[in-house]
């Protein structure tokens, strides 16, 4: 095993990014704080993705929900056709929220409130499989929960009980739309590394159509080698600290949700590599930022086209699903709780 201390990454990159963010903040803070159209599509940015640099911002919304404030104000941008897209930085614009402290309920509730019916969430992940190289992209289809139960993971609570379906944790239609339309090879640029061009891994393109599974751990420390090997033995493909409870809450809010993972390291299982560090993660994210931007633009084009025709009916099957997932008789639910739920589900359970 190599225990070499790596040279530090060029921190000028981070300083430059912060300075351009400062410049950008000056104009962004002048954006209107209202937007009077429904915004049906949102992108949640993870580590290294703190804005949508190739789209034109038109509004910046500060939203308060019954579950508190989101991680960041929500920026609304338009693409060339005028299609509005919401963007939220999961860890805040300055990345000052630990994975365990991300206010996921407020994030999802705020997006629901502005009309969002589909979310694509980006995440930097460690690879648990040799064939998923750092800088590859992965469209996961399954999740293993290794969080520690300290993150609020439901909108429901004592006094109002509900159980959402979660066997398919990602939205199958959204997954298919992306998998069928984003080229799995040849579309992304290589980075002069010996491993060749990055690949976009999807279930449809694995040998036997196997699931691609994201393990979600609590963090903030990375996994030990023994844990990393355990997750491989469970069939994990990649690992992060973010997909939960985000995916669960999106399901409860009846929003179609899919994550796109950007592989940044081999976690700690691979004894021919050094165990993961933040420097490795940030270094690979930086090298891959042009590909991430390319992917984001393609995605917005794809979704805006789909939403203009509604040919797949993304999110249609989720509509009304929570109404029939409650166990408690709504007549026995307190007025206070019903009012809270009204924020997410207007008209489902009238306040008596
Ligand atoms: C900075 S490495 C660990 C950090 O990166 C990932 O964040 P995100 O999913 O928001 O891109 C991972 O989940 C951890 O939170
Ligand atoms: N190895 C890893 N474990 C957990 N989260 C990560 N994010 C990026 N790399 C990761």
Automatic annotation (TrEMBL):
Predominant localisation class: cytoplasm
Binding residues for phosphate: 47, 90-91, 123-124, 242
EC number annotated for this UniProt entry: 2.4.2.28
SUPFAM superfamilies reported for this sequence: Purine and uridine phosphorylases (SSF53167)
Localization, UniProt: Cytoplasm; Nucleus
Swiss-Prot/TrEMBL catalytic activity: S-methyl-5'-thioadenosine + phosphate = 5-(methylsulfanyl)-alpha-D-ribose 1-phosphate + adenine
Binding site for substrate: 241, 265-267
Superkingdom of origin: Eukaryota
A biological process term (GO) from this entry: purine ribonucleoside salvage
Keyword annotations from UniProtKB, A to Z: Cytoplasm, Glycosyltransferase, Nucleus, Purine salvage, Transferase
CDD domains xrefs: MTAP_SsMTAPII_like_MTIP (cd09010)
Site for Important for substrate specificity, residues: 223, 278
Oligomer status and interactors: Homotrimer.
Function statement: Catalyzes the reversible phosphorylation of S-methyl-5'-thioadenosine (MTA) to adenine and 5-methylthioribose-1-phosphate. Involved in the breakdown of MTA, a major by-product of polyamine biosynthesis. Responsible for the first step in the methionine salvage pathway after MTA has been generated from S-adenosylmethionine. Has broad substrate specificity with 6-aminopurine nucleosides as preferred substrates.
The name this protein goes by in its record: S-methyl-5'-thioadenosine phosphorylase
Naturally occurring in which organism (per UniProt): Pichia sorbitophila (strain ATCC MYA-4447 / BCRC 22081 / CBS 7064 / NBRC 10061 / NRRL Y-12695)
